[in-house]
User: What shape does this take?
Amino acid sequence: MPNNTKPTYNFTNKTALITGAGGGMGEQICLSLESFGAKVYGVDLKNKPSVYTGKNITYFQEDITDYKAIDSIFDEISNESGKLDYLGNVAGVLLFEKDKSLVDIDMDIYDKVIDINLKASTYMARKSIPLMLKSDSGSMVHFSSVQAYRGDPLPQDAYSQSKAAILNLSKSVAMQFANRNIRSNTIVPGMTMTPLQKRWENDSESKEKMANFIPLKRLGTPNDMADGVLFLFSDASSFITGTELIIDGGILLH
Ligand SMILES: NC(=O)c1ccc[n+]([C@@H]2O[C@H](COP(=O)([O-])OP(=O)(O)OC[C@H]3O[C@@H](n4cnc5c(N)ncnc54)[C@H](O)[C@@H]3O)[C@@H](O)[C@H]2O)c1
Assistant: This one.
């Protein structure tokens, strides 16, 4: 993997809040940010990952759809750090067997996916803005999916719709707060090996087939996504807002 020419960053005195911090991509994003000096806050339903031990990462085991719990997290960040520089809206669910075509889906399942993937991301952005306005600067990165751009013969309509709406959440924040130097961009991942794709863990045949279909001939990694997030948080992207960074090995070229 061509990882020998990576940029380095200085995130000293920067504060970041990352949702999905117990998942594949979120965990790597927290570790990468921390390794470059950031104070990181992570939130996830899962237990605190053991790799966080001894690191400058404060972990909240909470449900991001529980707005009271989210309010408390923001209170703690405000009291402790007084500001927020970066928000990573990474948490998301894909309910494989239950997320179906709009004509078949149980509407409670539909609501659940929208609540987690879209509404909670919106609430996180809404709560972040006042903290970013304190320093007239900030950068948000929201996680969509290549599914936002596609129809699918085997649809997961709630997931795809939630991920398409994330594109507009990001653009709207970007437009509304550009004059206060708050940037907002979206990462659009392709197929990436994380717990979300655990159905493929022991299915090397399907993984190989998918890798062969991807123009760059491999599946994505959490590091591929963390690299994009760090770039979009950093000043290296200071003139970039309201856009998408597709990290998919070229799969959307098909
Ligand atoms: N892995 C892929 O192939 C892929 C492709 C496209 C987009 N994505 C998107 O990338 C993002 C990260 O996915 P990942 O691959 O790291 O998946 P993951 O399942 O490893 O991580 C997602 C995390 O979100 C957390 N989460 C879910 N619901 C939550 C809730 N209500 N409150 C708090 N935390 C909650 C989960 O516990 C999990 O740890 C997601 O938004 C996903 O939709 C992933």
About this structure: The longest strand covers residues 182-189.
